[in-house]
Design a protein that fits this description.
alpha+beta; Cytidine Deaminase, domain 2; binds tetrahydrodeoxyuridine
């Protein structure tokens, strides 16, 4: 038996003002999108913003449904829209923020597993890493330089 260690690398920023200028703008767009979330059941609003190689910013937010599994997370709303409307563009970075109407979220909220898997698909498709920045409503921001740091041992087309 051999033991294997997997390392992941994350950067932590203390506040939005510490982020590079273009990412501050991206996070602001995610915050704006978050407020338009349709989250009448969870009262947990998530916003995501993607920046493409063209400079275009695409946003998304969570869309819930009375039949719960029919809803979709903010990250996938944004990335599927990017894939649908800009199929040949490269996604450089993604900013994600969450706010609950029930309590103040002061720590970074990582994306769910299904969203990580969806992001991985696009990173592999474009053969270039997507930097992912995520935060709560306030507080620290975590940066992963690639989805591989959030989803080690991911499933991809090479296994098919
Ligand atoms: N949600 C997201 O939008 N992104 C995630 O990565 C985690 C969860 C949404 C789904 C649902 O509308 C609400 O947050 C509570 O789970």
């Amino acid at each position: 038996m051999k033991k294997q260690k997997i390392e992941i690398h994350l950067d932590v920023f203390d506040s939005v003002s510490e982020l590079p200028q273009d990412i501050q703008k991206l996070m602001n767009k995610a915050q704006e999108a978050r407020e338009d979330a349709y989250a009448p059941y969870s009262h947990f609003r998530v916003g995501a913003a993607l920046i493409l190689n063209t400079g275009e910013i695409i946003t998304g937010n969570n869309q819930e449904n009375a039949a719960f599994p029919s809803g979709l997370c903010a990250e996938r709303v944004a990335i599927f829209y990017a894939g649908a409307t800009n199929p040949n563009a490269t996604i450089h970075a993604m900013a994600i923020t969450a706010r609950s109407l029930k309590q103040k979220i002061t720590s970074p909220i990582p994306s769910c597993g299904a969203c990580r898997q969806a992001i991985a698909e696009y990173e592999i498709k474009q053969d270039a890493p997507i930097a992912i920045y995520f935060m709560g409503e306030t507080g620290k921001i975590v940066k992963a330089s690639s989805i591989a740091d959030l989803l080690p041992l991911l499933f991809d087309k090479n296994y098919l």
